[in-house]
Amino acid sequence: MDRFRQLLGIIVRSTRRLAVLVIGCAVTCAGLVMMVTPGPGLIVIVAGLAILATEFTWAEILLERAKRQALRAKDAAVRRGAGLLRRRRTVTVEVVELDVIEVGEVGERESVD
Question: Whole-number mean pLDDT of the chain?
């Protein structure tokens, strides 16, 4: 009877690992497809890795690496976005200054004529 329970335990664990593998790979593949078609590809890939990481150490390592890359990308985007915001403000101020100068010159020309 013990031998039967051990065998049943092995079958249940193997079946669960196989199900996680199939579902995780399917979700990850769907994310890869979404990288070239409309859809949230990166999010779906990370979700697939999270599913795989519940049973496989290699997937957990890949998931941690993906998280680190995502944080680096977020930090770079924030830095880049702050720089773009400063440049937009500078351009806006310069355009406003140019408009004020042009209006002033037009007013001076009209008074001379």
Answer: 79
